[in-house]
Design brief:
With 412 residues, the protein is of the alpha+beta class. It has nine helices and eleven strands. The protein has a five-stranded mixed β-sheet, with helices on one face. Strands 2-1-4-3 form a four-stranded antiparallel β-sheet. It is rod-shaped, with a radius of gyration of 40 Å. The two termini are 58 Å apart.
Length: 412
Amino acid sequence: MNQDKLYQYNNQQRWKFFLFLFAALIAAASLFYTNYLVKSLSQSERTKAEVWAMSTRSIMTMPDVDDQFISYVYAVRDSLSIPAIITDSKGNIIFWRDLDPNKTNIQEQIDSINSNLEYDPVYFEKQLARMKRNHAPIALPLDTGEKWSVYYLDSLALRQLRIFPYLQLSLIALFLIIAYTVFNSIKKSEQNLVWVGMAKEAAHQLGTPISSLMGWLELVRIKFNAEDDSALNEMERDVKRLEIVADRFSKIGSIPSLTSHAVHQVIRDFVQYFKVRTSEKITFEITGDKTVEAKLNIPLFDWIIENLLKNAVNAIESEGKITINIIDNIAKEEIFIDISDTGKGIPKSNFDAIFQPGFTTRKRGWGLGLSLTKRMVDYHQGQIFVKESELEKGTTFRIILKSNLRYEPTQV
């Protein structure tokens, strides 16, 4: 590949990798810092739960003291704003905090441990089981030797904080995907406009000299009485080929007209023209189904085959063989066109890259041939890809087209 183009391509790949790595580092840093905050807040809430449990124990066990001190203890207890449950040593629920009042069946605010509590046992069992899964219990020993256990849930704010970075990163990723899709679409649209403009301008510029060449050929035939001269006939064929090329360029950007043709016949006609203009050391062979048909635009389809054959010829350093095999896939109503060469092969890492504009392995290549080929296959509502390739042994490109023949299942 041209060193400048190779450097540019590799540089683009490196930038993509570094941008992805930078995004991954930002995501990791965000998750790490959020996890740090969650741990800090979780520890703070556990401390609050311990204070609430101790203040509750003090209310239940304290002797008669100053009313101001009692008010202070109550204020400390009521400052907790997370769901919590206290159980005795036998696992019975004896006190709770911030549970659903509609499911605890409490008719008034109860502050005494000796009050006759009425509650929904199923609701409490579910909440207690949930708290046990959420955190390890806080042990709260009493002066009597009994030990209470305090269970609690994270606050709503802490639970939201746990999922916030994932939600935030998901939204950012969604925004970036949408933005990338939009900008990529705009970029491709601009590229298409440039391509179409260049193609139509090239067709326009070729028109005048082609017409002149046809006129000069006719003058030469008349002047030298050479109506059947083989050299002039070949020159005329080449000039007509130039007309076809100009017609191809003029059709880029327009929706091509597709008509049904026998694929084998179309390929054979082009190969007969192409092979006399290549080295005699390279042989051509067309095999496979001769009757299958597809909807084609002949000038554009010939261009597809021409680009692939030129690549195959360039891949063969001295002598070799190019085989075109046409396969009718009856089950899927598709046509497989495999173009194989005995050239130098393509590395697997380049299988997708070769269809990108500007990618080439030739020193003087523009890297547009296979990109145009893929575009023209798309016009035919088909697919093209590297089926297989082995270094120093050869490459096979596969084109998939929709068959124009329909097969009815056999009635038994």
